[in-house]
Amino acid sequence: MRHQARPAVLGVDPRLVMVIELGAPVASDEFRRAGLQVLDAADKAVVVAFADDPQMAGFLQRLDECAGGIPPGHASEPYAAFVDAIDAVRALGPDDRITEALGEIVAEAAPDSELRLDVELWHPDDRALADAWTDLLRDAVAAAGGRITDAYTSDQAGVILARVYAPAGRIRELAALDVIARLDVLPRPALTPPQLFALDLDHLPTVDPPSPTAPIVGLIDSGIASGHPLIGPAVLAAEALSPDITDGEDRNGHGTMVAGLLLHGPIEPVISGGVRARPICKLLSVAVLNEDSLFPDEHLWERDLIEAVEWCASQGARIINLSVGDSRHPLRTPRQLPAAALIDEAARRLGLVVIIAAGNTHPTDYLGTIQPHSLVGYPAALLTDAATGVLDPGTAALALTVGGITDAAAAGGYASRETVTRRPFGRPGWPSPVTRRGPGVSASVKPELVERAGTLGLESGRLVKDPELSVISSLLRPGRLLGFEIGTSFAAPLVTRVAAAVQARYPDFGPNLIRALVLLSADRNAFEAQIDGTPAVRRNRARQLLGYGRPSIARAAESTSHRVTLIAEGVIPMNGVHIYEIPIPSSFFQRGGRRGIDIALAFDPRTRPSRLDYTSSKMEFLLYRGIPLDQVIELVARIEGEDIDLEGGDDIDGSETSTATASGGPGSQAVKLQPSNTIRSRGANQLGRVEFAQKLDPMRHAPTFLAVRNVNRWDDTTATQNYGLAMALWRTEAQLELYAELQAQLEVVLEVPIQVELEGESQL
User: Fold this and answer.
1) Nearest 5°: phi and psi at 129?
2) In contact, 527 and 697? CB cutoff 8 Å
3) How far apart are CA 439 and CA 395, in angstroms?
4) Is the pTM of this model over 0.70?
């Protein structure tokens, strides 16, 4: 009766669509036998449609038969299991149809502001009825003062989609239309089509020169268009060292796009939002690629590459961006590739931070035939294809390698006619379909970081490149100042920009510490929740595609009231151990919210590609809690070799502390970090995290010590190893601040004093 009494919505009679909430699983056939049309199903609820009163009567009859008790000759009530599983029957309401993201925007937006929506209707498996439902949506949107730019029905896929623009104040009214299954908000393109395709100099922001103290970054690519108004004020030099490349000017466009992202970050806010812009760094450009974006055939490309790196370093660059790679040589074996080995040697010798693109692949290379399910199924194929490994020189152990993700949720925003049939590969935060996956040499985490690389669209069975799905940056072609492309080439400079921001803020920091701070700023991606398998399998697969996550200038360069960064630069002997005491804020011992510790370590060992143990030494860190320093020393002294699992499991599930070594071994008091020590210590760029959902016990977690260990593989026993160490203690913002308390003990960013240094196994 309540359902039949519901008022008309936007002049449209409501459909008989209801939600049956379940306390136990029920097969869909049970609902069909009850005369119901199942529209959607989940573990806890089933959405059904009553087409007419007889169907509802049949459902009620089944409920009545169960309520009538056990009929003669039967052992139980009819349909008892079916009815007992039902907790409630209610109408499908607006809150069921509006996504969380849309609900948040509606709550904050002005009522008359126009929102861009993706609308999905229930498909009734009847084309005539599907068309009728689409017409109902058109009428409802028009009544709400909105417009539909495109609609699409696929009977084969059982999908009805529409792209809708509607006022924020009428969204809940629109969501009451019963034929709607889901309403989701889409971001509007940041630029207008004229800004993207026909921007002129008069509408560019004024670009000021970089600060006199800005860091110098070397860009080794296809050259740059040094006269581009977004780039020119930052250029110190644009050279070509190869006799087969005429000069340092870009004749391909690749290097110019990379330069715009490196200097300004995402270009859309610069164009649409500001009247002035200032590049984050000064730029040295060396052209090593010709007009076809290829290395000249007459020379060893590895030689051209390393000479360009050395020239940039000689001119004052401490950070190098390489958005180049050898597509013939993806990593397939545990051994290092030649160009990567040269980069590692130069980075160590010259004291450089090198950021390298992981390289590009293409969905047709690892998927074969592209199908609609490829839009969400491609990551599994990307992980298993033997040819999708990171390209040389992206396998360099001392470099930060950058893979690609997609931020786009919709396509067609820049088209003359927006279409809903162009669907993007992946979802925001997913790996780009053109990225490459790890692991790296010695099964190390590669790529370590990710940034926006764009994605492809699928329309009528064809792969399409769409501006809204791509990365937009500077371009110099007749009549064009901006262009769009996809690829990890355009993700790398966004990470290079983070490293430049750290150097600008702390010019005295060494390359290892800069790398550690960039790693420490990586976010926690949610993509692993979309992967099948156990939690450990999901973490490992997500790490192969996304590394440690997406970095941030704000997190890399500054502390906040709820996230405090501690740092150290050290020199450790072979087979030595450094132990640091970590201050745990009192807020960690109080209820409410979440808290955690992130630890990043970067070091620059010697390397030899002829050895299976590519790096001369291996470093690792362990977090000990609740025991005094002398006991930590005793535990560390019992560690032998480099292949011990010191945290009680290779990414297995469990509490934050190890249980596998509870007998008193070296890891018996170690806090279990993710990823495990076994995984993260395979590389020269490491990040470990632990999150505590409950308050800590002072008796079990104070004091806390961090042990940093260096294990010699084949280096001189008298050698030493430089490293950079960064740690963030963080708390959810609704809880007590950390900053003020720790400031009373330490400086905002403080080199944590070494409590004890242990050298040589014989002295432990």
Assistant:
1) -70, -35
2) no
3) 9
4) yes
Among residues 180, 182, 181, 184, the alpha carbon closest in space to that of 9 is found at 180
Pairing relation of β-strands 159-167 and 114-121? Answer: antiparallel
Q: Smallest Cα–Cα separation from 340: which of 442, 414, 253, 240?
A: 442
As a whole number of angstroms, the distance between CA 600 and CA 579 comes to: 15
Give just the sign of the alpha carbon dihedral 484, 486, 492, 497: positive
> What are the structural domains, with CATH classification, of the chain?
17-92 (3.30.70), 95-186 (3.30.70.80), 193-530 (3.40.50.200), 559-763 (2.60.120.380)
Residue 581 structure tokens: 């005491």
- Enumerate residues 6+ apart whose C-beta is below 8 A from 93: 176
Residues 6+ apart with CB under 8 A from 96: 19
**Amino acid identity, position 438:** G
Q: What amino acid occupies position 736?
A: L
Residue in this structure with the two tokens 């959607």, named with its chain if needed: 40
In this structure, are strands 319-322 and 353-357 parallel, antiparallel, or unpaired? Answer: parallel
Close Cβ partners of 488 (under 8 Å, ≥ 6 residues apart): 323, 357, 358, 359, 360, 402, 403, 404, 432, 434, 435, 436, 453
**Termini Cα distance of the chain:** 80
Q: Over 492-543, what HEC string results? A: HHHHHHHHHHHHHHCCCCCHHHHHHHHHHCCCCCCHHHHCCCCHHHHHHHHH
Using CA atoms, how far residue 218 sits from 99, 326, 468, 738, 749, in Å, is: 44, 20, 29, 37, 27
Q: Please, are residues 519 and 495 in contact by the beta-carbon 8 Å criterion? A: no
Amino acid type, 16: L
Closest CA to 323 of 291, 371, 374, 285: 285
The CA distances from residue 87 to 21, 35, 64, in Å, are: 5, 19, 16
Question: Dihedral of CA 553/556/557/561: which sign?
Answer: positive
CB 260 within 8 A of CB 230: yes
Which among 113, 257, 275, 86 is positioned nearest to 185, based on CA atoms? 113
Per-residue pLDDT tens for 655-703? 333 333 333 455 567 899 999 999 999 999 999 999 998 888 887 878 8
Core vs surface per residue 277-303: b (16+ CB within 10 A) or e: bbbbbbbbbbbbbbeebebeeeeebbe
User: For residue range 336-375, what is the model confidence (pLDDT) as tens digits?
Assistant: 889 999 999 999 999 999 999 999 999 999 998 898 889 9
